Amino acid sequence: MTFAVLRALHALIGDALDDVERIYAESGNSSPNSRTSTSGKPSTASTARSPTHKSSNSAQGHAYASPPPSPLISSYFQGQPSSQDRSTTPLSTLDFPSLDLPFDPNSPSENLTSHPVVISAVNKIVAAAGQMSATVQIPFLTLCDAGMSFHLPSCLRLLEASHTVEILREAGPNGLHVKLIAEKNGVDKNKLAHILRLLATHHILREVSPNVFANNRLSSILDTRKPSENLMRNPETKYSDTNGVSAFFGMCTDELFKSAGFLTETYFLSPQKHKNGREPTRAPFNHAFGCEGVGFFGWLEGEGINGKQVNGPGRGVDLIPGVVIPGNGSVNHKRGTSSIGKADMYSGKSSPTNKPRDPLANPNRFRLERFGKAMTGTASWEVPGAVLNGFDWQSLPKGSVIVDVGGGIGSTSMLLAHAYSDGRDISPDEDVPGLKFIIQDREVVVDMGEKAWKDKCPELVDSGVARFQVHDFFLPQPVKNAAVFLLRVVLHDWPDAFAQRILLRLREAAMPDTKLLIADFVLPLACADNFGSTEDEGEMGMTEIQGAETMLAPAPLLPNLGKASANGYWMDMTMQCMFNGQERTLREIVSLAHSAGWKVTKVTKAPGSLFGHIVAIPIEIPIQRRARAGSGSAFFDIPNSNYMGGSAVDPHDEALLDVREMGRASSRCGTPTFGSRMDLPSYEEARAKFGGGIRGALRRPSTSVLTRPPMKPSILPAAGSAKKKRPSPLSVVPQSPSPVPRNISSPRPPPPPVPHSPLKRRISHAQLNQIYSSQQPSLSPAPHQPSQSPRIPGSSLPLSRRASLANLSNQTSISKGPPPPLPANFLLRSSDRASPALSQMPLSPASPVFSRLNSPGLSLRSPTPASPNLSHRRSYVTLSPSAIPKKRVDNSVRSIGGLPSTLGGRGNTLMRSLELSGLANRGVDGQGRMGPLKFGDELSLDPASDDGNDTESIEESLPGGSVLAAAARIESLRNTPSRKPSMSALNRQYSS
Ligand SMILES: C[S@@+](CC[C@H](N)C(=O)[O-])C[C@H]1O[C@@H](n2cnc3c(N)ncnc32)[C@H](O)[C@@H]1O
């Protein structure tokens, strides 16, 4: 059986390689401008069709993973464009980018890695290869890999911090002897050789001859393209004017890496009263850096350091952790107050102090600035234009108000404003929904956003299409007429209790037809998901969620695509380690939303991405029922508290849920947070990326938005342009429309063609169009059907990075229940299957093929059970077994079957804490913010009032932000005729 699985994985890899080669071959043949190969040799695509086929490359017997560097690559090292060379190289096909050559974001070959078929195939290869390796390797050695691979980030950090990548770029394709590298960066040559060799062994760098190292496709993405000498002199300038990738890996291998080392200290070895807590300022990060009570962002801003130094005295380079100080050749590794290495952070509590007044005196200044840049480097975590497909924006009534809650500088709103507004307050055009945007954030961020919008698109601000508003999302939501509340990468920053409070605030302010749109990673389980199978999940409507996936890949692959989906899980742990936050599974998102009065109805993910757009509608907030333990301790059933699980709760736990943590956890001075967009998308970039998705203004030459400056050379370089700004190598997005044509019944004409230079080296929109349309007949066997959502903007395949892509979702997510046994014909190759095209093509949920696959006739999903009557009362008794306090006597509590055993009572702790904090704290400060609360505070509810009608009677006595208060408020709003104030009225209201 194991051999059968291995053979199946092998065949999967072979099929996937065939797919990739076919796309490259077709592209090479169909596009005269892209007849090139980064290897300088013809591809073997036409001959290599079997996983066992020996390609001519491997037959050459050289030491390279792929053909040796061609003379073409010398242009990289000289910093010169190589388009001329390429365009005159007559080759029959494109080759896949070589591992041995530096990354070239402008090469057609690299561009094609974002082709959906390639993304899908690569995901299969990565998943299958990872699984094969885990299967065949001696377990001890595989665990050695897992247990000792901490050396990888450690060595990677040195590579980045010592500017070795830049030194190697300057050395050229033949590399540089480690002795000479050491002379330049001051690291001991013998130590350096071993460090670089470890990296080369993991394919990050190449050892071209003994002790001689050169950059390769992986290491080169760390290249800031700056002269190494300058960096040695002014290392603090390293990340300015870069794409942020080196900053991102600098941060990952420094504070994130170190924090992760304290996971067990925090979650297991800490005193009982702390370890189950979810305070944002008592995370592994706080252990690692000895700064309990200080949020990561506050710490970055210099808080909690108590006047001592974190990284050494003085300013400038002295502040940079681990860099060589020029002149004396020494390396600064003073750690100041860090408790790394100390066993127990609780022995000596640090108290937060105000951050230094002088930002230059902030010992963490370098890290702070690096974080900002790093967030730019992660732009490709999400396909930015996916928000256009994540909701049926066109279906909204004219002039609808979208509230971008925690919206940062408004980059998502800006995309939407370009797509769905024509830059006028009221558009005469019936087709233009003329959406209005209110972007809410903290004051300092709002200031930044207003400035950015005024610089970039003043007409949208002046016309009233968009406006910023200072608002703390833990306080009552001031906008009462929102059509959509948008929460993009906000909830993942917060533990459940805090996230629930944010959602409650929105629920309180929601009209019956208000929608909630959550944009966050949606983590799949590592087994086939059976969500919706329990009664309570049925009550939460899980079985009816459109686009929900139960698995991303067929057996024998892991249902979540294993290694190919790793990035979502890295992010999850990063949020835990830094903030006690988390990414969430769909089940967790649904339950969290439900507990705050929102019912999830739809999930949309861009092909190959775990990043989802989740639509929810308002429902009644489940009112928790009071329960009393025999001992007299008060604790409560928490609505839907089964969703998180974790360890059992000690009802006498004195852990505080101090809601002032909210403030401490948040950035004070506008530091971005994980996932925030640091740049406004340019109109042209958005247009180039999302084509038909950008509607409204784009087709109206007379409107003001078209008076924007012409397309920037950095986006679509002019012919012969010598200097190009390198886009983020992780965010190369081919300018492509959907490969699956949709019959969109829009009266709108298509948007004007994207102007592009005929000489530019990137594959043009039109070229990819051609590629896709040439594949059309075989890729889409289904007859064209009208789109479910006729106004969904055109490009359903915003293509992006390849990391963490899990784009088998739509073809493989349709079976429910345990993974099927290995089919007898499993070894059949894709070409033998009934519908090879379907199996090869990642589908957009908007595609007719996808709808067809999900149609009742074809779906393998078990039929949706009749929706049970929603009875919120039942859900109060759904505590997971492990979360039931020992003293509990409430025999209505029952266990939840089907939940993974790893889900215990952690969520209950949080939810309980929230409830207690909400109910027990009568004191609300002047700003409506709730004060710190003790677990076990007295409830004001009379047990007898547990009849479902208690909301009105208790409204007055409840602090804002609690479940009950929100429910009560909604109840009272229900009796108030809903008004829809005009935008100008709203503006007046807010400005007063
Ligand atoms: C990860 S960022 C997301 C920003 C934006 N939605 C985006 O997609 O780029 C989280 C945002 O939440 C904001 N934030 C944090 N605490 C807040 C609070 N209490 N009230 C309002 N916004 C807050 C931060 O300033 C930050 O802009």
From TrEMBL:
It comes from the Eukaryota. This is O-methyltransferase. It comes from Lentinula aff. lateritia.
